[in-house]
Amino acid sequence: MKLKNPSNSASQTLTSSETRLLVRETLRISANLASAPPPPALSERPLIRDSNFGGLVEDQFVDSSFRLICCEEIDGRRWKYFADNNSVKTDGSKKFKKNSIRAVSLQNPQTPFDGFKAFITSYVVPEGFPDSVSPAYVPYMTWRALKHFFGGAMGVFTTQTLLSSVGVSRNRAVPGAVAINWILKDGAGRVGKMIFARQGKKFDYDLKQLRFAGDLLMELGAGVELVTAAVPHLFLPLACAANVAKNVAAVTSTSTRTPIYKAFAKGENIGDVTAKGECVGNLADLLGTGLSIMIAKRNPSLVTTFALLSCGYVMSSYQEVKSVVLHTLNRARFTVAVESFLKSGRVPTLQEGNSMENVFSFPWSKHRPIVLGPRFKDAFQDPNSYLAVEPMFEKEQYIVSYNPSKGNIYALFKDQAKSDDILKAAFHAHVLLHIIHTSNQNQSSSRRQQEHDLSMLVPTSSDLQAHIAESYKMVSALYGPFKNKAKEQGWVMSESLLNPGRPRLCQLV
C-alpha cells in the first residue's frame, strides 16, 4: 500500500489556487481595459518640405535642430524659415551660423495637374485675380474668347476663298499678277484705316457703339471676301473693299481696347490686364483656326458654314459689348440715367445703366432728338421765339429751346459755359423732352403710337414757352439731387463724353 506524499499534494493544491487567482485577475484587468476610454493617440506631425534637403521632413526634427525666424506666404502657399540653433560666439555675443537659413514649405508638392493649371493661369489671368479686376472682367473675357474663336474659324474659309479667287490654287494667273493684286488689296486697306482714324474722339464717347459697329463691319468684309469665289474676275475691287472694311474694324477695335481694359483694372495694372486679355483672344483664335482647318478638309457648304460662324461671331460680339461696365456717362448712358430719374426718382446703378444702354445708336445717326451745341440758325428760325426764351436763361450759361420745324430740342451754350453748365444744359434738354412727351400723351391717346417722333409734336408758341418755363423750375429743383444720386451710384460725369458742338453764343458788342 502506497502512501500519498503530503508535501506533493499541498504543492498541487497551491498551484491550482494560484491558477484560479491568475485567471480572475486577468478577466478583471481585461474588463477594465474594455470599459476604459482609449488612450489618446499620438498626433501625427505634419510633413513639411525642406527646400534644402529636397524632401519631406518632420516638424519635430526641424524644431529640435533649428529655430524659426520668419514666416512667408506666396499666393496662398506658406513657408517657414529656420536658422541653425548651434550659435557661434562672436565678440562676446551669440549669433547664428552664416548661410544656415532653410526654407520649409508647409504644403505638399503640387500635382502635375495643379502645376499645369497654374502655368495656364499665369498667361490668361491678371496677377491678384479676382481682386485686381472688376467683376465684369470674367463675362467680358468669356464672350471675347468666343468671338475670337468664331473669327479665327472664319479666317480659314475667307483666306482659302481669296487664294482660290486670285488664281493661286488653280494656277489661273501668273505669280507677278497675283502679287500685284494682293499688294493693291493690302494698300487699299491701309488707306481706309488712315481715313477712318480721323473719327478721333468718337472712340471715347461712343465706345460701345463703335466697337459693335466695327465687328459688324468685320463680318461685312468677310462676306465680301467670300463673294469673290462667285465672281473671281472682280477679285481686285471686291478684295480691296473687303480689306478696307476689315482695316476700319481693326482701327475701331484697337482704339476702344484701352478704355475697356482700363474700366476693368482696379489699380495700376492696366498693362497686365491688357496683356492677359490679348493672350486670351490669341489663344481662342488659334483654337478656332485649328478647328476650322479640320472642318475645311471635309469640304462643307461654304454658305452654311459662314452663316453659322457669322451668327456666333455677331452674338458673341454683342454680348461682349453689353458685358462692359463703364463708370462714365456718355450720351446714351446719360439718357438712361436721366429718364430713369425723371420716371422713378432714382439713378440706375452702374450695372443697370450699362445694360440698358442702346449699342445700336451709332454716332453717325442723324436722328438725335437732342442736339448739344448747335448753330444758332439751326435752333431758331423765328427771331421772336429766341427773344421770348432768352430772358428765362439770363442767369444761365446756356439756352434750351425746341424747333418745331425740325423736331429737335437744342441746347445752345454761351461763351462762358463751363463743364457743369454743359451737363446742366443736357439735363435740361432731357427734362424738356420729358415734358413735351407727357403733354402730348395727355392731349390725345391717338398720338401715343408716335410719342417718340418729335416731328409730330407741334406745340404752339404759348405752349412752348410754358413748357420751357416749367422745365426751368424742374431743373432748378432736380439737377442737384440728380448729381448727388449719380455720384452715390459711382457714375463719373464729364461734359467731354457728351460731345457738345463747338459753337458758342457771344455777347453783343
From TrEMBL:
Stretches assigned to the Protein root UVB sensitive 6 N-terminal domain: 14-110
Residue span(s) of domain Root UVB sensitive protein C-terminal: 347-500
UniProt-listed Pfam families: RUS6_N, UVB_sens_C, UVB_sens_prot
Limits of the Protein root UVB sensitive/RUS domain: 118-344
Similarity-based family: Belongs to the RUS1 family.
Cross-referenced PANTHER family: PROTEIN ROOT UVB SENSITIVE 6 (PTHR12770:SF20), RUS1 FAMILY PROTEIN C16ORF58 (PTHR12770)
Record protein name field: Protein root UVB sensitive 6
